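ok posting inputs for the adenosine-5'-triphosphate job
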Amino acid sequence: MQIKRLRLTGFKSFVEPTELRIEPGLTGVVGPNGCGKSNLLEAIRWVMGESSAKSMRGGGMEDVIFAGTSSRPARDFAEVALHCDTEGALVAGLSDAADGDDLEVIRRIERGAGSAYRANGRDVRAKDVALIFADAATGAHSPALVSQGKIANVIAAKPTDRRAMLEEAAGIAGLHVRRKDAEQK
Ligand code: ATP
Ligand code: MG
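and the output
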């Protein structure tokens, strides 16, 4: 799976709609402290289903919405759209909505109304989105997304947590979600 485009609207410091194209090869994001580099990585994790406000460096999930500055009012919603090329990979959580190899997942949160997901124009559940990315060996908790301070966490991790990281990397994390699902039925 290859990320091709990322679009942010009202997400953290990205108050105006901002679109980034990610070309094949290495992409670097440079800028002074506090300009929003980490916010970009958090946007990718968030649209992939991150449910922990703490790991988004916030007190609550609505903290991802632009909070306003002395010259700009706060916004009522935040939206992140992630456009990927699935490279023919099976998009299991979305079999009948997948349009060729292209996948666009959008997550939107509104103040007081929680967040909702769309995948290729169709309403989907958080669980569907988590499965899509877990099967592609990426996703909110994937070791492919390394946040600031994360290296130290890996070194200090308990064996069970380290195993979870390896399972994410191997692309089998989705199997646990399905097993839990099957056990509940
Ligand atoms: P560093 O080089 O120090 O790691 P960075 O480029 O990674 O910096 P970020 O941590 O991504 O910077 O950005 C932090 C900025 O985002 C801060 O200026 C903070 O005020 C702003 N910010 C975070 N959440 C919000 C929000 N909800 N509304 C408005 N601004 C926000
Ligand atoms: Mg940073």
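notes: The mean pLDDT is 87. The first strand starts at residue 2 and ends at 9.
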